[in-house]
Design goal:
heterodimer; A: about 600 residues; alpha+beta; 8-stranded antiparallel β-sheet; B: about 375 residues; alpha/beta; TIM Barrel; 2 domains; 9-stranded mixed β-sheet; 3-stranded antiparallel β-sheet; 17 strands
């Protein structure tokens, strides 16, 4: 394919603004997929994606489009994930494109993610085609929203397409605009191979299969290739092809084209998004810009409920990691929970997804600890520890200062919620950075937050106080010192490591009190009194007690009761197996989950 | 088979705490019941391998008419049943050796009935006294009053039945202001051979459960339960009674032989709707609804609704929790492993003690029995 007949583009949008529906329509209108095989959200292949209505795994699709100018164009739509956890992945997808369709819901208008993703697209130098979607809805205000877009990116009203992806209205015009307005790729076909990895997929028989955008040169089977991040390892290409809801082999991929290759690569850790694929014989070329190692932002311990499932969990994590390079894990042990893994995630959604996949796809039953960020603990001896497990925080006198990660956050919300959002921001130790009106009724706030304050339930809270209208996006900023303490929960004097948290001193009392109350509700009465304490060091800041059980017996037990009674005991025994014993106290699983849901 | 249970499902009304399989009837279908049970006896062995009447070397030792309300059956029905059962189960003499218990409501104990029961072979009566407080009796939906209990005991003794047990219920809601101490005193004054004391338990789908759910009755109070249970222990001990099971006490060793069979894991056969049978390995139970049971046996079909074959683990669990219910306790040798460390705390607290290589619960331990059972059976892998 001649490069001038190739268009590589993506769709950027806030969640629920219709990205997947628009992708469905484009695939349908270009006749890419047989009508019979069409279904909603066709690019989202994981059950989880379909259930949650989000894109987790990237997908690309090649469409052949007969343009009104008579030419046949190769359109490559590169999907982008729809969540703040995956900002880096979004930026890599954008690097593979020359243009982006910016989709804005004609009733909801511009949201935080619209702006963040738009800025990413502009940074990547993409041509933007602004689109107002859902014009068929009664609440649509296309004129007002067009003005917003105009103010945001300076687009003229006639450049903004008004479509309904659901109904198909004006989608053909959009396809024409893609051909006319998005520049063709301008790679050098004769130069040595340079291809950008924007995603990677793991196949259990063929290993890691990276999705690539060829910048320069050609890739074809039989070639020896290397990766920029580990040039010494060489691989032989077995197969190249393009993506069309499946892998379609071709003879080669040329400069400007998007596709995949198979080269017997063991796992996706070797094919990191953002890395450059090189011709092994001409490897001394400059790498494509922007690659960085993805760092985990959120950490939590994952433990099997059944101690004997540790090996299974380890195998499951290894398998998952083959397909998810952003998942990190290492073994750890907990007095309360036994053997498990401290895992690093991109964010809370990523954590939930991993956990859910482990439970669903590997049939595991897991307990997770309270998620936390990674702390930089500067010690008085001048060294620094990276602490991602609160129970491993060095002793108080050895610590000079603790630094925690801050993020820069953007919140877009109707102006009537300014007060509530200011209050929430302050409660979460936010540093207010200013705001401006995106339109007469809505404001765009900037804040700096400690990441720890927003990973747990900030987004839910924000949605609640704004009746669902506020949107949020954030990115890592820097590490800053904070007055942080380690808060332990003690049961009959024994600290339960899985409940330990690192928390700002001003918030420790309230947190400790709430957890103590919650544990009092959730830990069943036992034969002996249970004293629950929240403590900072040796200082107890909250205390609850659970009165001992006085009676635990069935009054009547005769011939007809024996079976029933035995079944009851068997059930209780099962329940007891699912309890974790710390010292003399039995703690039910729910208690470990409940601390994740403290208001 | 040495132990035989007959379930007589009929009652004239449902007691507020009762979730048993009963059939509330104004008129008791006595003839149909006797026919049905006798048909079931004929079907034994023919349709239910494992429920054969048994061989001669294992002569019948106990028969127990439970309910429901067996005393609602006319005395001749009871006599007819006992006559046949004696033949089928090869009991040479029902009158002397075999313990034959009849559960009776105090209001059913007339001089005529008592004499007929005795003549038919009944030598033990378990009276559903429940309380000596008329207000509490009304609340329980019982049809008798305190005076009837006293009369019933006297009538039974006159008829020659001296092996009398009284059922009492404790831990009644505080709002009833029932005086448990006074009840115990009145019960002891009658010098029954045996007492069964049951803590009030709220079962699903009972009038009591409904009262509690709509706030008309207080939810059970474990502290009250414990306090009244322990009070009964000290009062009964002072009166010469010995608790030989969690809820049962006897004087002069006049224990219930029939119920002891359950707790020692012996085989038993049950007749009538909802009755359970056990041969040491397999437990079966009959259709629980009277009509369904009657139709099955009338059609010559086995009335067994379901059965289970106990695994070794289940047998151990049953053996442990049943043995610990009794004053004989659990032989340490019968445990598959060493005593778990948590048992030490039981001994320390005085909730159990070791006697002749057996683990035996104290009253405080009986109150918490289920927790001990969980500790002793499996579950040694936590932490």
């Amino acid at each position: 394919m001649r490069q001038d007949h190739i268009r590589n583009f993506c769709i950027v949008a806030h969640i629920d603004h219709g990205k997947s529906t628009l992708a469905d329509r484009l695939i349908e209108l270009t006749g890419t997929l047989d009508k019979r095989l069409m279904r909603e959200q066709v690019l989202d292949t994981m059950d989880l994606e379909r259930e949650r209505g989000i894109t987790i795994k990237l997908n690309a699709v090649r469409m052949n489009y007969h343009s009104r100018d008579g030419g046949i164009y190769e359109l490559n739509l590169i999907d982008t994930p729809g969540h703040v956890d995956f900002t880096y992945e979004v930026s890599r997808s954008l690097q593979a494109c020359e243009g982006a369709i910016l989709v804005v819901d004609a009733s909801q208008g511009i949201q935080a993610q619209t702006i963040s993703n738009l800025f990413l697209a502009l940074d990547a130098g993409l041509e933007i085609i602004p689109v107002l979607n859902k014009i068929d809805l009664p609440g649509a205000e296309p004129d007002r929203r067009a003005l917003e877009i105009h103010e945001l990116i300076g687009a003229k009203p006639e450049e903004i397409l008004r479509i309904s992806a659901k109904e198909g209205t004006n989608v053909p015009e959009l396809l024409e605009a893609v051909v006319r307005r998005i520049p063709a790729p301008r790679g050098t076909a004769e130069a040595p191979l340079r291809a950008l990895i924007f995603d990677s997929y793991y196949d259990r028989y063929r290993g890691a299969i990276p999705s690539i955008r060829v910048a320069d040169g050609t890739i074809r089977p039989g070639m020896k290739i290397a990766f920029g991040a580990h040039r010494e390892d060489l691989y032989e290409v077995d197969e190249v092809g393009y993506l069309q809801l499946g892998h379609k082999p071709t003879e080669q991929l040329e400069a400007g084209e998007v596709g995949y290759f198979v080269a017997n690569v063991r796992g996706v850790r070797e094919t990191r998004p953002g890395d450059t694929v090189l011709d092994a014989e001409h490897a001394d070329v400059a790498l494509l810009p922007g690659y960085r190692d993805i760092k985990s932002m959120v950490f939590a311990g994952l433990y099997p409920t059944e101690p004997n499932q540790f090996e299974e969990l380890r195998d499951a994590l290894a398998k998952l990691q083959l397909n998810d390079a952003s998942l990190h894990y290492e073994p750890e042990s907990s007095v309360a929970l036994g053997f498990g893994f401290r895992c690093g995630f991109l964010g809370l959604l990523h954590m939930e997804i991993v956990r859910e996949r482990l439970e669903r796809e590997f049939n595991l039953d897991l307990i997770s600890t309270v998620p936390n960020v990674e702390y930089h603990v500067h010690k008085t001896d001048g060294t620094m520890d990276l602490v991602e497990n609160p129970s491993l925080l060095p002793h108080g006198s050895a610590v000079d200062r603790i630094e925690e990660p801050y993020v820069k956050a953007r919140i877009v919300a109707p102006a009537e919620y300014i007060g509530a959002i200011m209050k929430l921001g302050q409660e979460r130790r936010g540093v207010y950075g200013g705001m401006h009106y995106v339109d007469p009724t809505r404001v765009d706030f900037t804040w700096e937050f400690p990441l720890a304050e927003i990973i747990l339930d900030f987004y839910d809270k924000l949605k609640t106080i704004s009746r669902g209208y506020a949107s949020l996006d954030y990115e890592f900023l820097e590490y800053r010192p904070s007055d942080l303490v380690k808060l332990d929960m003690l049961l009959n004097g024994d600290a339960v490591d899985a409940f330990s948290v690192i928390i700002h001193r001003d918030k420790a009392y309230e947190w400790g009190k709430k957890i103590a109350e919650k544990l009092r509700e959730l830990i069943p009465r036992q034969l002996f009194e249970v004293v629950i304490q929240a403590a900072i060091g040796t200082k107890v800041i909250a205390r609850e007690t659970i009165r001992p059980l006085r009676k635990n017996v069935t009054a009547k037990c005769y011939g007809g009761d024996v079976t029933r009674k035995r079944k009851l005991l068997e059930k209780q025994k099962e329940g007891k197996k699912r309890m974790k014993q710390v010292g003399t106290v039995e703690i039910p699983q729910e208690a470990f989950l409940a601390v994740l849901q403290v208001d | 088979m040495r132990h035989l249970y007959l379930h007589v499902p009929f009652c004239t009304r449902r007691c507020s705490y009762c979730d048993f399989s009963i059939a509330v009837r104004k008129r008791i279908p006595a003839r149909e019941y006797v026919d049905a049970v006798l048909r079931e006896v004929k079907l034994l062995g023919a349709t239910d391998p494992g429920r054969e009447p048994g061989d001669s070397e294992h002569g019948l030792q106990t028969i127990y008419f439970g309910g429901g309300t067996p005393s609602l059956l006319p005395p001749d029905a009871i006599a007819a049943l006992l006559t046949t059962l004696r033949d089928v189960f090869r009991a040479t003499s029902l009158r002397n050796d075999v313990e034959v218990t009849l559960e009776a409501n105090p209001e059913d104990v007339t001089p005529e009935a008592a004499t007929s029961w005795r003549r038919a072979g009944v030598n033990r009566v378990s009276l559903g006294a429940q309380s000596f407080d008329d207000r509490a009796l009304r609340w329980m939906h019982r049809s008798h009053d305190t005076a009837r209990i006293v009369t019933a005991v006297r009538t039974l003794r006159v008829a020659g039945i001296d092996n009398i047990s009284l059922d009492l219920i404790f831990a009644l809601p505080a709002g009833l202001e029932r005086d448990w101490g006074r009840d115990l005193k009145q019960a002891l004054a009658l010098r029954p051979a045996h007492l069964s004391l049951y803590g009030l338990t709220v079962e699903e789908r009972t009038p009591l459960a409904r009262w509690i759910s709509r706030g008309a009755a207080a939810a059970p109070d474990d502290d009250r339960y414990a306090e009244e249970y322990l009070r009964a222990h000290s009062r009964l001990a002072a009166g010469g009674y010995q608790f030989y099971e969690v809820s049962n006490a006897a004087r002069d060793n006049r224990r219930s032989g029939h119920n002891s069979a359950y707790w020692s894991g012996r085989a038993y056969s049950g007749l009538g709707p909802a009755a359970h049978s056990f041969d040491g390995k397999v437990r079966r139970w009959n259709l629980s609804a009277w009509e369904a049971y009657r139709r099955a046996v009338a059609a010559g079909r086995s009335p067994v609704a379901s059965q289970e074959t106990l695994t070794d683990e289940q047998l151990e669990l049953e053996r442990v929790y049943l043995a610990l219910r009794t004053d004989a306790g659990l032989p340490l040798a019968s445990l598959s492993g060493p005593l778990p460390s948590s048992t030490a705390r039981w001994l320390e607290q005085g909730w159990a003690h070791l006697r002749d290589e057996r683990l035996v619960c104290t009253p405080e331990g009986w109150l918490r029995l289920d927790a001990l059972v969980r500790d002793l059976t499996g579950c040694r892998t936590t932490g």
